[in-house]
Structure formats: structure tokens, C-alpha cells
Design brief:
One of its GO terms (molecular function) is oxidoreductase activity, acting on single donors with incorporation of molecular oxygen, incorporation of two atoms of oxygen. With 594 residues, the protein is mainly α. Helices cover 46% and strands 5% of the residues. The chain starts with a helix and ends in a 31-residue tail after the last helix. The N terminus is likely disordered. Bound molecules: 2-acetamido-2-deoxy-beta-D-glucopyranose (4 copies) and fe (ii) ion. The site of one 2-acetamido-2-deoxy-beta-D-glucopyranose has 4 residues, from loops.
């Protein structure tokens, strides 16, 4: 069990203390200026031209999506970011190694994993104390067989795949009407007509290349209905269809084992979706937009300071992905069902849609999937992701309103900023960002910056980073693959063969734990601190400094609220049988981080 893991930790670089000055690239102390206010416009233009030449748009990494920086400056940037990342990596790997030792001892004492309960107990209770000191989300390990937990995960832990079925579209599959009337008190058609029927489609995963490595792994490519119950208004699962082999439709009326297996099969597909979509939606997009800025904005531009702050070690992630995750026979191939080739194909296939800039702004994105109306109202009893995400989004927007208005009192002031104008042109023309605004005014700039801050913090850490190890990636409910073939008939009696071996399980948890950055709380690298870093703030103007304090206070307030969450009399927390805390602004970083 340990040997597989040692391979992983042995790559850690030996770096010790965290050099604070590496947090930012700009060591300058002069106030940030827009071009028109720069006392030395010639030198500034020359510096911008030198950067334009020194950064080259090189080939994409991990599939065909955003360019990756090449050129003398590009390579220096990548090296710098890798050096920074390596420090965090050494820290987390040290923690994980200790934890693997402890959990290995617990497994040995228990004689391995003999029941499904062992997965939740032996693998987690009192374990991963160093790498995940927050522990698992309260409720997630005890309530995972509940339908409400499974369905509400679609409105919290991965809110990016669910959509409402429109009134007139053909139903993707049929469910026995006796079943729907018993489970939902209505027919599929009635639910659809009332706007209460929802769908998740993972059929496309059938076409992606699967791993060939041992141990043998399996999966379906499920599609699933969820619904709002006409009487209770609870959001619940209705059916899961396998779309492979025997093509079975599972429902809550099946035996407990069959239905749990169906949910496990769903979760295997969902894991692929959440982890791979985060790469495209956040890493690729932020890198592409930032590269356009590297080619056009001065290092002294206030917008550049902000972008750099959100891109600390940003160019390490895809290098690390190529090196350790998506390399042939790497961690991904060892653990997951779809292999690294399937991952790359997914990135290439989805970049033109998930990579779209404006279409993926928070409100349009969720409205397009029918989860909110045009006023931002949702139809659910509770929508945990939406509550926290919109509060953070509003925090960013308030900050950037002040920021943009303070640097550009009038539209004419902004129109006079040729660097910003060039950045917008560059983003579409050379960085090939899809759907970036073609022209700029103050409102557009506020939205562009709000989305950027939102993407690298909320967007990234909703799906990846430190939350999965204690929530959406916990065993036995959220596995990387099935370890026995998808059944041809219902009536499965034993779920154990479908679950990972102890060796696989520990490798998986260790891998997911290595994405945690819980120690960012200790040195002000969490989202609440995005703009209150002294050297950064010192270079920004007075109104921005004030807005940064407001951002800090309001986001700290949200963090306190999230940390105080507990269960009500019904055993629910904001309508969910576990505590949702993925977006705690004093836990998540203001950068993609990993
Ligand atoms: C990076 O740029 C250099 C110099 O322009 C070029 O020789 C090299 O082929 C490029 N590398 C890639 C991977 O494109
Ligand atoms: C969920 O789990 C928590 C912690 O184990 C428990 O207090 C709560 O009652 C459970 N909720 C439900 C609905 O079972
Ligand atoms: C899978 O690929 C085949 C062949 O290209 C295509 O006909 C089919 O529609 C694809 N299925 C999905 C679900 O994308
Ligand atoms: C974090 O910020 C607080 C003020 O907000 C400061 O007192 C503390 O020293 C900072 N910690 C580190 C490690 O920089
Ligand atoms: Fe990431």
C-alpha cells in the first residue's frame, strides 16, 4: 500500500520556508498608473513592447485549449511559478506521507476493508489529520445513502452539470409511469410541463478512452432525472439510466443495493465531470486572458497588478498536470476510469464552450441551464452553492466598481487607455479567448474583472482544491471507477466488489488530499486577503484601498457564517444533510493554487 504512494511523494522537491516576497512578481513600489498618468510614457511603451516580444503563445498543454507561454519571458515565468508551487507541494506531501502511514496502520489493524462501512470508518475516522485537519464535511460520511444528499450535491458540490428540461423538448428517456407516480406523485410529462424536471447527461463519457492499466476498471455513461417534488418541494433523484451494456433504468423503488449502485455509477461520471471541467473553465480561461494582458498591459497598470495577484503560480498547474496527473500511466490512469487520452480529448472538445468568457459569467451560465430565471431567482427550496457564490460574486463586483470608477472617473478616461483597448483586442485575436467582449466600457471592464476574480477563487475551489478530500471525493460513495463490471441485470447483492481495494483507496485519498492548501489560512493566502496584501495595496489608490477593506470584512463575515453552520432539528444544514462549506472565503485561496 505504501509503495505506490512513496513513488508519489519521492518527487517532492526539497524546499523549506515560504519566501513572502515571491507572492508577487512586481517588486516595484511606485503607485500603479494608467498610461495617461505615467510620467514616462516612452519607457512604459518600451517595456510593454519588450514583454510582447518576450512572451510567445506556445502550444496548449493537456489537450488543445489555451496556449501555454513560451519565449524567454514565458519560460522564466513558468519556472518561477513552478518554484513557488514546489514549496506548497513539499508541505502538503509531508502531511500526506504522515497520514498515509497512520491510515495504513489502521487498515492493517482492521484486517483491510471488509464491509462498506469500513470505507467510511477505517479510512476516515481520526485519519488525514495533517493533510485535511478540517476533516470530512459533517454528515457526508453518515448520511450518504440518503437520496436528498445525493440530489442536493447537484446544487452544491458540483452545480455545473444539472439543467432544467425545457417544456417542449423531447424527453431523453422514459421511466415507468407507475414508478414516477409513486416516487414523484406525477408523470414525467407533468413534471416537465411544470418546470420541475431536471436532467444530467453524462452519455458523452461513453466515447472517451478508458484506462487499460490494472486493476481493471468499469463504468457506465449515465443520464439521470432529478425533480422538484410537487407536494414537498424537495429536490430529489428520479431515475438513473446506464446507457451501456444492458442499458438499465434504476429508480429509488429498486432494492437498496441496486439503487445505491446506480448512484455510485453516477458519481464515477460526476467525478470525471467536476475535475476535468474545472481545468477548462478556470485554469485554461484565466491563463488565456492573463496571457493577453502580459502582451499588452504595463507591469505598472492597476489592472495588471490585480491580474497578477490572481495568477500567483498560475502557470504551474498545467505543467504539473502533464508531469504527474495526465502523464501516461500517471496518477489519473492509475486511479480513474477514463484515461489521460480521454481527459485530453475532453479538454479539446469542451474548450469552445466551457472556455467562453461572457457566456460563463455566473448569472448567464446558470440561467442558460434553467437553474435561475432572469431575475436571479431559483426554484429550489435551497441552493447552497448559489447562496454562497452570489454573495462572493457581489463582493467582487462591489470592489471592482470602486476600482474601475476610481481609475476611470469617466468613460472618456477609459477610452483613452490604449493598453486596456489592446488587451481586449489581444484576448480575442491572439490569445484566442472565446466570447471575450469585443469592446470595452466601464461596465464591461467591471464584469470582466469580477468574473476573473470569481473564476480563480469560487470557480476553481467549488470543484477542485481543498474541498473534495472532505466532500465530493469521499469513499465509499464517490469512487473513481467501478472495480467490477456494470451489471447486466438488477438484483446485485454485494456492493463490495465494485469498490476500490484498500491500496487503491489510500492512493486515491492521498492524491485528492495533495490538492489541499489548508495552510493558506496561516499566512493570509485565502480569498478574504485578495486585495489587502500590503505591498499590493500600497500601490493602489485610496478608494481601492478602502474597497479592499470592505471586501475583506464582508468576505470574513461570510466565512464566519459558513463556519457556524450546523444541523437543524431535521438533521439538515441549509436544506442539505451535510454541511456545505466548499466556498469558505477564509479557506479557499484567491488563486487557482493547484
Ligand atoms: C518555444 O519557442 C522557441 C523559440 O521561439 C522555439 O524554438 C520552440 O520550438 C518553442 N517551443 C514550443 C514547444 O513551441
Ligand atoms: C446527517 O448527519 C449528521 C451528523 O452525523 C446528523 O447529525 C444528522 O442528523 C444527519 N441528517 C439526517 C437528515 O439524517
Ligand atoms: C459517440 O461517438 C459516435 C461516433 O462518432 C457518435 O455517433 C455518438 O453520437 C457519440 N455518442 C455520444 C453520446 O456523444
Ligand atoms: C495576516 O494578516 C494579519 C492582518 O490582517 C496580520 O496581523 C498577520 O500578521 C498576517 N499574517 C501573516 C503570516 O502575514
Ligand atoms: Fe486546479
Amino acid at each position: 500500500m505504501r509503495s505506490a504512494f512513496l513513488l508519489f511523494v519521492s518527487l517532492a522537491l526539497s524546499v523549506t520556508a515560504f519566501p513572502k516576497q515571491h507572492l508577487r512578481r512586481q517588486d516595484a513600489t511606485l503607485p500603479a498608473t494608467v498610461p495617461r498618468k505615467d510620467p514616462n510614457p516612452k519607457a512604459r511603451a518600451a517595456a510593454v513592447a519588450a514583454r510582447d516580444e518576450g512572451f510567445i503563445y506556445g502550444p496548449s498543454l493537456i489537450g488543445q485549449a489555451a496556449f501555454f507561454p513560451n519565449g524567454t519571458l514565458g519560460n522564466a515565468r513558468t519556472q518561477h511559478d513552478m518554484d513557488l508551487w514546489a514549496i506548497d507541494r513539499a508541505t502538503i506531501d509531508g502531511f500526506v506521507a504522515k497520514d498515509v502511514e497512520a491510515v495504513s496502520a489502521a487498515l492493517a489493524a482492521n484486517g483491510g476493508l471488509k464491509t462498506i462501512d469500513d470505507y467510511a470508518k477505517v479510512l476516515y475516522e481520526g485519519q488525514w489529520k495533517n493533510s485535511n485537519p478540517r476533516g470530512t464535511s459533517p454528515g457526508i460520511m453518515t448520511n450518504y445513502t440518503q437520496d436528498l444528499l445525493f440530489s442536493m450535491e447537484r446544487l452544491s458540490l458540483n452545480p455545473y452539470s444539472l439543467r432544467a428540461l425545457k417544456r417542449h423538448e423531447p424527453l431523453p428517456f422514459q421511466v415507468d409511469s407507475k414508478v414516477t407516480s409513486k416516487v414523484a406523485g406525477a408523470s414525467l410529462k407533468q413534471l416537465q410541463d411544470d418546470g420541475k424536471l431536471f436532467f444530467i447527461d453524462y452519455r458523452w463519457q461513453a466515447n472517451l478512452t478508458k484506462t487499460q492499466m490494472e486493476p481493471k476498471r468499469y463504468g457506465a455513461a449515465v443520464s439521470a432525472y432529478f425533480f422538484i417534488h410537487p407536494r414537498t418541494s424537495d429536490f430529489l433523484p428520479l431515475a438513473i439510466k446506464t446507457n451501456t451494456g444492458a442499458d438499465l433504468v434504476y429508480t429509488p423503488l429498486d432494492s437498496a443495493n441496486d439503487w445505491l449502485l446506480a448512484k455510485l455509477m453516477f458519481n464515477v461520471n460526476d467525478m470525471f465531470h467536476s475535475q476535468m471541467s474545472h481545468l477548462v473553465m478556470t485554469h485554461d480561461v484565466s491563463e488565456a486572458v492573463h496571457q493577453a494582458a502580459l502582451h499588452t498591459l504595463s507591469e505598472d497598470h492597476p489592472v495588471m497588478l490585480i491580474l497578477e495577484r490572481h495568477m500567483v503560480q498560475g502557470y504551474s498547474a498545467r505543467i504539473v498536470g502533464e508531469w504527474l496527473c495526465f502523464n501516461p500511466d500517471g496518477h489519473w490512469d492509475q486511479l480513474m476510469y477514463i484515461n489521460n487520452i480521454g481527459c485530453r480529448d475532453y479538454v479539446t472538445d469542451t474548450w469552445p464552450t466551457l472556455g467562453r468568457y461572457q457566456a460563463n459569467y455566473l448569472h448567464p451560465q446558470f440561467e442558460a441551464r434553467g437553474l435561475i430565471d432572469k431575475h436571479g431567482k431559483h426554484p429550489f427550496k435551497s441552493f447552497p452553492f448559489w447562496d454562497d457564490a452570489t454573495e462572493i460574486h457581489a463582493g467582487y463586483k462591489a470592489f471592482f466598481k470602486t476600482f474601475v470608477n476610481s481609475y476611470y472617473p469617466s468613460e472618456a478616461d477609459l477610452a483613452a487607455d490604449h493598453e486596456i483597448k489592446n488587451w481586449f483586442i489581444e484576448a480575442t485575436k491572439n490569445a484566442k479567448v472565446f466570447d471575450f467582449p469585443k469592446t470595452v466600457n466601464k461596465d464591461t471592464l467591471i464584469e470582466v474583472l469580477t468574473h476573473f476574480g470569481f473564476l480563480v477563487s469560487v470557480g476553481h475551489h467549488a470543484l477542485n482544491g481543498g474541498d473534495p478530500v472532505g466532500s465530493k471525493a469521499t469513499l465509499p460513495f464517490h469512487a473513481t471507477a467501478l472495480f467490477a463490471p456494470v451489471p447486466e441485470t438488477k438484483g446485485v447483492t454485494d456492493l463490495l466488489p465494485f469498490l476500490p481495494s484498500a491500496k487503491q483507496a489510500v492512493h486515491y485519498i492521498a492524491f485528492i488530499a495533495s490538492f489541499n492548501r489548508q495552510f493558506y489560512q496561516n499566512d493570509n493566502r485565502t480569498m478574504i486577503n485578495a486585495y489587502v496584501d500590503d505591498p499590493l495595496l500600497a500601490r493602489l489608490n485610496g478608494p481601492t484601498k478602502k474597497a479592499a477593506q470592505t471586501f475583506f470584512k464582508s468576505m470574513k463575515g461570510l466565512s464566519n457564517k459558513i463556519r457556524a453552520r450546523t444541523f437543524d432539528k431535521k438533521g439538515l444544514s441549509n436544506g442539505v444533510p451535510f454541511v456545505y462549506r466548499a466556498l469558505d472565503p477564509d479557506f479557499i485561496p484567491f488563486i487557482c493554487a493547484v
